[in-house]
Amino acid sequence: MNPLLKTISLLILCFALTHNVVAQNQDMVIVKGGVYIPLYGIDSTAIKIDSFLMDIYPVSNSMFSIFLQKYPEWKRNTVKRLFADKNYLMLWETNDNPGNLLLPNAPVTNVSWFAAKKYCECLGKRLPTVDEWEYAAMADEHTADARKKETYNQYILDWYESPKSFNNVIGSTFKNYWGIYDLHGLVWEWTMDFNSVLISGESRKDVDKDSNLFCGSAAVGASDLMNYAAFMRYAFRGSVKARYAIKNLGFRCAKDL
C-alpha cells in the first residue's frame, strides 16, 4: 500500500476508535477514588474505592425506548418472567413507548435488575457497585462527603415524602461535587452487586441473596444511629428481588476508568 494512503488509513482508524470511546463515555464524569466507611459492615471497615466513571444522569424513558428497539427481547410483551415480574414497564403506553403519561426525559422506572444490567452492558458499561454508588452519593453540591450535614440528610428525608418524583425530568435535582445529578431526590437506583453489604451473621435475612440488589437514598454510616434516612432505605431494600420492577426504582451506568 502507498505509504501516504497507509498513514491516512491509520489516522481514520484511530479517529474511529477514539470516537467510539468518546461516544460510550458521553455524559459520564470521573469520580476520583478514595476511602469511605460503608453503611453497614464488619467493624465499619474503611473501603478503598478506585477512580471510576459514572453517568451524570439516570437512564431516561426515551433512552430505554431506544434500547428496546435494538433488543426487542426486553420489551414488556416479550421479556422472560424469569428476568422481570408483571410490573415491568407497567406504566408505559405500549410495549416499547412510554406514551404521554410519562415524560420522555424522566428516569425510566419499573425495570428489573436484569434489564438494567443488560442495558449498561450493551453500551460497554456496567451498573455501579454498591460501594461506588455510596461513595459518589455522599457528596452534596460543595463537598465530597456531606453525610454529617443535617441539611443534607433532611433533604433526603423530605424526598421520601415526595413519592411521585419518578416522573420529574432528569437533572432537576442538584449537581453534586462530582458533577452528577439526581443521586438523591428523583428515584432509587439499582447497583451491580447484591451481596456486598453484610448484615449480622445472626440475621435470618442473610440467606436472602437478592436483598441488596439496589442502592438509593442516603449514603451514610450506620454508626450514626440518628440517621433515619439510611435505616429507611434498608427497610425498603429488604423485600426487593432481582426481577422486581418498582415505579420509583431506576438506574444509571458506570464504567471502569
Low confidence ranges: 5-24, 198-212, 216-223
Roughly what fraction of the amino acids lie in strands? 5-15%
Share of residues in helices: 25-40%
N-to-C order of helices and strands: HEEEEHHHHEEHEE
Rounded to the nearest angstrom, the distance between the terminal CA atoms is 36 Å
Task: Set out the fold topology.
Blueprint: H1 3-24, E1 28-31, E2 34-36, E3 47-49, E4 52-55, H2 61-70, H3 113-122, H4 130-137, H5 150-160, E5 188-190, E6 214-215, H6 228-237, E7 249-250, E8 254-256
Parallel strand pairs: 5-7
Antiparallel strand pairs: 1-4, 2-3, 4-8, 5-6
Question: What can you tell me about this protein's structure?
Answer:
The chain is of the alpha+beta class and 257 residues long. It is 28% helix and 9% strand. It has 6 helices and 8 strands; from the N terminus they run αββββααααββαββ. The strands form 3 sheets. Strands 1-4-8 form a 3-stranded antiparallel β-sheet, with no helix packed on it. It has a 3-stranded mixed β-sheet with strand order 6-5-7. The chain has a two-stranded antiparallel sheet with strand order 2-3. The relative contact order is 0.19. Mean pLDDT is 79; it is low at 5-24, 198-212 and 216-223.
